[in-house]
Amino acid sequence: MTDRPTHRPRRLRRTPALRDLVAGTDRHPGHLVLPLFVKEGIAEPTPITTMPGVLQHTLPSLRKAAREAVDAGVGGLMVFAVPERKDAVGSAALDADGILPRALREVADEVGDAAVVMSDVCLDEFTDHGHCGVLAPDGRVDNDATVERYAAMAVLHAEAGAHCVGLSGMMDGQVAATRAALDRAGREETAILAYTAKYASAFYGPFRDAVECDLRGDRATYQMDPRNRTEALRELALDEAEGADLVMVKPALCYLDVLRTVADHARVPVAAYQVSGEYAMVEATAARGWIDRERAVAETLTAVRRAGADVVLTYWAVEAARRMG
Ligand code: PBG
């Protein structure tokens, strides 16, 4: 009898109770954030073809969806809006009675302090060219003019009831300018979620259907290059110095290494966004019976937490919360 193993890691895998006892990653519904879409001028909630199970909401159905999420234990709601009219400068974004502030008022009124109400501060839902900012005469995205608009938008969102504004545009200086504008407006309590390492990703494809964004060109001059990791630390240092309360890595699955790196260095909580294309990839594969949907969803969420996310934005938030709860 030689070479019987002395070390048997399988001992701790033997029963569900043993596995639960030593599990290194916990999944808690309070860390989940559900992104929600609302569209101006529609009479009925409308399915998004490339995101099966996700809807463009009306104001009343948005309210209902927010309630349902909170009842399931979801910790936050991130609201995106599609305006009826888009133009070159995204004017509808700066209307205090525009669709996004209106939606935020409804959601804030519905959920109170039972969940964190978040808003997307970006122009791509509002511009007819689909870029995240306004364009300079030469056609490039004008950083500083865009940042001024983000700051004004953030104030409108805070006044409408957002507890936290999400700066997703990847413009330089957006956090500092927004913090200053919020403070000037007496909104020093409103938190800033900075999209710190947001990559120029193919996985945003279905989202562009959800917000009807017909992008001309690409976002390579402002979103990060997928080949870079260390640059995320530079963005992190800037966002922290500018006053970000939370930082985000996006997308999640293809960037788990970046998430780990950011989580190791951040002095503020770290969020990760499991984006539309990650959702669609699992849904489409599962619909063909090629993977076990429930297990795949749980596994991706676990991976994102394990890589270091304190907060996870996911279109599966409600279903995952129900399963955890
Ligand atoms: C920009 C924004 C995008 C997403 C969230 N905020 C799109 C983009 O940068 O092109 C994508 C989210 C997703 O794909 O689920 N407002």
From TrEMBL:
<feature type="binding site">
    <location>
        <position position="315"/>
    </location>
    <ligand>
        <name>5-aminolevulinate 2</name>
    </ligand>
</feature>
<keyword id="KW-0479">Metal-binding</keyword>
<dbReference type="GO" id="GO:0005829">
    <property type="term" value="C:cytosol"/>
</dbReference>
<keyword id="KW-0460">Magnesium</keyword>
<feature type="binding site">
    <location>
        <position position="276"/>
    </location>
    <ligand>
        <name>5-aminolevulinate 2</name>
    </ligand>
</feature>
<comment type="pathway">
    <text>Porphyrin-containing compound metabolism; protoporphyrin-IX biosynthesis; coproporphyrinogen-III from 5-aminolevulinate: step 1/4.</text>
</comment>
<dbReference type="InterPro" id="IPR001731">
    <property type="entry name" value="ALAD"/>
</dbReference>
<keyword id="KW-0456">Lyase</keyword>
<dbReference type="GO" id="GO:0004655">
    <property type="term" value="F:porphobilinogen synthase activity"/>
</dbReference>
<comment type="function">
    <text>Catalyzes an early step in the biosynthesis of tetrapyrroles. Binds two molecules of 5-aminolevulinate per subunit, each at a distinct site, and catalyzes their condensation to form porphobilinogen.</text>
</comment>
<keyword id="KW-0627">Porphyrin biosynthesis</keyword>
<dbReference type="InterPro" id="IPR013785">
    <property type="entry name" value="Aldolase_TIM"/>
</dbReference>
<keyword id="KW-0350">Heme biosynthesis</keyword>
<dbReference type="GO" id="GO:0006782">
    <property type="term" value="P:protoporphyrinogen IX biosynthetic process"/>
</dbReference>
<dbReference type="InterPro" id="IPR030656">
    <property type="entry name" value="ALAD_AS"/>
</dbReference>
<feature type="binding site">
    <location>
        <position position="208"/>
    </location>
    <ligand>
        <name>5-aminolevulinate 1</name>
    </ligand>
</feature>
<feature type="binding site">
    <location>
        <position position="219"/>
    </location>
    <ligand>
        <name>5-aminolevulinate 1</name>
    </ligand>
</feature>
<protein>
    <recommendedName>
        <fullName>Delta-aminolevulinic acid dehydratase</fullName>
        <ecNumber>4.2.1.24</ecNumber>
    </recommendedName>
</protein>
<feature type="active site" description="Schiff-base intermediate with substrate">
    <location>
        <position position="250"/>
    </location>
</feature>
<comment type="subunit">
    <text>Homooctamer.</text>
</comment>
<feature type="binding site">
    <location>
        <position position="235"/>
    </location>
    <ligand>
        <name>Mg(2+)</name>
    </ligand>
</feature>
<dbReference type="GO" id="GO:0008270">
    <property type="term" value="F:zinc ion binding"/>
</dbReference>
<dbReference type="Pfam" id="PF00490">
    <property type="entry name" value="ALAD"/>
</dbReference>
<feature type="active site" description="Schiff-base intermediate with substrate">
    <location>
        <position position="198"/>
    </location>
</feature>
<comment type="similarity">
    <text>Belongs to the ALAD family.</text>
</comment>
